[in-house]
Amino acid sequence: MKVEISRVLEKMAGSMNIGLTKMTPPFDGIGNFDYGLRRALDAEFDWPGFGQSLLDQVPEKTLVFAQGVFELRFALFLAPDEPETLYCFGPWADGPQSRESLDWCATYLDEKAQKVVEEYHNRVRQMDDNAIKTTLFAVISLLFPEGKLKTAEWREFMPLRFRPSLESFREKSFTEELPAELIAERYAAENRMLAAVIKGDIQTALGGYESFRRFQLTPRMRSPLRDFKNFSIILNSLLRKSIEQASVHPYYIDQISSRFALEIEALGSVEEGERLRVRMVREYCRYVQKYSLRQYSPLIQKVINEINLHLDSTLSLKTLAAQCYISPSYLSNVFKQETGQTLTDYISRRRMERAARLLLTTNARVAMVAEEVGILDVNYFTKMFKSATGQTPTAYRRDKRAQASLEVAPDSAAPLPPPAGGEKREKLRKS
């Protein structure tokens, strides 16, 4: 199976949280390859000439590691199977600005411009330089004959020997618009992620998150881990508000957001936290897939939530219609029209789904499980369960647990609707 180089490189850049710019004549859009720094320095900069100079100067079968004036890193190479095509990874930084860089800025820039450059540097992804070079070389070398890929180092990458004038830095386009553009880039990535979460689109949401986390936010605390936790709390809040827009009931929203709030505080390292954030995005999308009711009218949303949250109560067409102040016949017709099934069938299906879950996640007796889903006659419950699953409750629990012991457990389990009574919840937990 043939895989496009660009797709592989996009995946790699995403996994390392750095940008990837494809440069090819007429070089449209390459002005943002460093998030707009050079464009802000010189509005009249010759981007086509810049792109062509890179094509001319980067040797074939060579991975060039370049460092800019402000110690930002890039990696460039010519695509082996795409004529006049250059790929540029970056920017990334190998840590805070060095003393040498700060002295350079103090010599050539005024105080306001120095602050802008510092802010820019803080927003770029910081990574270990040797680690990213090793990874890039290992992967990109696979695109060339074995042993043919070489490396080269460029310093003061513009690739010109760039020395800005103070006038350039005093221009509004640099001192004000550059930080604003970086923030706009970050917010655009954030919005792409949240829009995908609202739809329950896991892959698009993860792609938006990968773009979002390329930006290194300005540290606010002395502890990097505390900073990471604080920003993770913000992410949790954003995701929580997103699934609220997808008409997910507050009960479920509270369940997932509270759980992740505890996990964030328990983090022991940033690396552990990065994995947690990816899981957060993935699970919030799954909640939308499972619990979103936005496709239904407010009336049916209310009825479905009433059913899901009170499965252990007496649920009937008559009682639900009375709660909504409408006639049973009207509710029956609207429910069937919007969901494609009768209200009675929906209640039975949800009860059996929850019963199946309780059988697998607790050691409660079958009679207790039946009571938890609003069925007091255990024989009737067994008959209903077998009709829905093809097995008795006892056989279902035995077979599914045996099967689960041979498989890898899923990432997480969605919460069940709460029992109406605290006493029954306590009995179930202890049993």
Report on this structure.
The protein is α+β, with helices and mostly antiparallel strands and 431 residues long. The chain has 21 helices and five strands. It has helices spanning 5-16, 37-41, 47-57, 99-108, 111-123, 129-140, 166-170, 172-175, 177-199, 202-212, 224-245, 250-265, 270-291, 298-309, 317-323, 328-339, 343-361, 366-372, 378-389, 393-404, 422-430; strands at 20-23, 62-67, 72-78, 86-93, 150-154. Strands 1-4-3-2-5 form a five-stranded mixed sheet, sandwiched between helices. The longest helix is centred in the middle third of the chain and has 23 residues, at 177-199. It is elongated, with a radius of gyration of 29 Å. The protein starts with a helix and ends with a helix. Residues 158-175 and 408-431 have low confidence and may be disordered.
